[in-house]
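Problem 12. The chain below contains 686 residues. Write out its predicted structure in token notation.
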Amino acid sequence: MIRRKGKVEIGNSGLRPRVTSRYAPRRKPRVHRPRVCGWRALLVTILCLSGLAGGSLAGGQGGSEVLLPDGREFVSWEQPLQFTKTYYVDNRNPRAADSNPGTKELPFLTINRAAHVLQPGERVVIMTGIYRERIIPLRGGTGPERMISYEASPGAKVVVKGSRLVKTGWEPSTGFILSSFGPARSMVKIYQRRLDDLAFQGYNPFGMVNIMQDRVYLNPKPEELKPHLLRRGMVFADGERLEQVGLYRELSQKDGTFWCEHDGLTVHVRLPGDADPSQHEVELVIQEQVFAPRTRGLSHIRVKGITFEHAANAFPVPQRGMVSATGGNHWIIEDCVLRQANAVALDIGYQDWDLEPPAIIGHSIVRRNHIIDAGVCGLAGMGVQDTLVESNLIEHVGWQDVELTWETGGIKLHTSKNCLLRNNVIRHLTHAVGIWLDYQNTNTRVTANVIGDTVETLRGGIYLEASHDPNMLDHNIIWKATEGKGGSTSNFPPHGGWGITVDGSDDTVIAHNLIGYTRDAAIKCRTVEGRIVGSRGGTSRWNKVLNNIFYRCGKAIDFPHRENAAEGNLYTKDWGEVRDETQAVGRGLNWISGPGPALLLDLEAWQKYFGFDKNGAYADMSIEVDLDALTMTWSVPGETPQVSTEKHFLRDLLGEAAGQARKPGPLLRLPNSPTKVAIDPRPRGQ
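Solution.
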């Protein structure tokens, strides 16, 4: 499609572009057939039957003032809570016992005792302490006003751990041969301990490898198998995670390491500085999960203000988080800290595509949590709908280096519908994408997030995959993405380092984002013709790239063909770091990658030959983002284009209201001289 003298509009649906041009082709209506294969067919059918045909979403009273792509406001089901009874847990109280009535004067000793007695409309308040236990809720609530709540007492520091502290039982390690390339045995100090005294309760992670039963997407080369064949158990010394090695002799090459014997009943450790473990706080992680029902589908549970640590869970799929809704719905997880999960920190979906999906999936609220140091994924959710994920800090995810399992990310949702992901900060990820929406996502909006320092990743900031229906990605700051190393038996070359990737997906609105310092394209669209999703392959058609700012990206926009739209974007002109005329990446050019040889275009050619970005412009910008301080120092001198304010974009990244017209990017004001501004999207006071 050649677009001349045309314009792109967001219609009343907020989704379908209208190309007003005499060159616009006639379009046949798309026919959506229900023919889908396997678990996805069942899931999509349930989502369609349970979705709302119109009106406000979620059936509650909590308006968000945020429109979803179809123009409806996202409205929460949440209601003010009052409780008919309160139980108390205080393991530092000398009178605490699980035989007590659970009053403030005679509290329970364990949280799990409260989990067994709580009824709908009741709560447990937990006092300061370290609780080493698995909490297994026996039942859920019966509605928004009769939830069951697990909450830390105001001001209390409640830490629930899936590990056990082991001060005794350590002895010098003997009987195994060290590497001849390392120091002599007399120069290193390795200790061992039998684990027979630990209450594994049928789950010994030191005898179980990381890989679980679903291996359909796992095609590693032999040298890539190592993380999958290591054990799930973790060891911490004075709060620091030790690195697991695959062979005993590797202990001589590096301190701060541990190794498990084949039966999983003896662990050998070499602490930093060759220290004696009996003189340090050594914790062995033995639980798969820390807070998780065994009964699937419990609803209306709230978890508030609790720190969860240490889960020896396996690589997904299934998604079995340290904290898990176990296929439940209408959960609220808020103001919690989740850290040091071997694989997944939190799961809120139905976990496993080999299970029959429940009738209701998601409808959960995940807000103001801090998720840190998860090996594979911070927040996972399969089949979630009508779910709100807001104001979370997610960082240091992906250290297991298993991106080729295709389940890594700060947030990884499958088949999301009517979901809102807003005001989150996601930073410092390795081998993991910031936000990944995987497979047939519908009417989901990702807005006002700060995502940065996603390094060595085959994806980048936001990845939208295999979604034929409209979704919206707007008002995000995406800063610094570097490419992953590739690999697998498919011999993937090094690639990635994209800001936003739209992979085999159509009708996506990508608007008012700031994307900077990506190794490859700021926005990458790809067709995936050979993968049949629903009734057809991916076309990457009718995506709209509107009013964004691109700063020093390897490429700016990379379209696979001309059947997309770009308007009102602000570009950095070639900043001169690449001198070799045969090197195209690193200049910030726009690409049309097909059909045929790729076309590499500056803004003038982009406008002249394809009619894109008639209101786009170059700007002599200077931008620096501090992801730790969440500040940005920037200047955009000179005149910049203004665009009409669409109904979805009435507020900027920080919630400031726009007028009838506004400039490109996530913030309303583009300063002429260097100005330092706060960019933390999380509302103050939260």
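Discussion. The CA atoms of residues 511 and 546 lie 5 Å apart. Students who got a different answer should revisit the alignment rule from Section 12.3.
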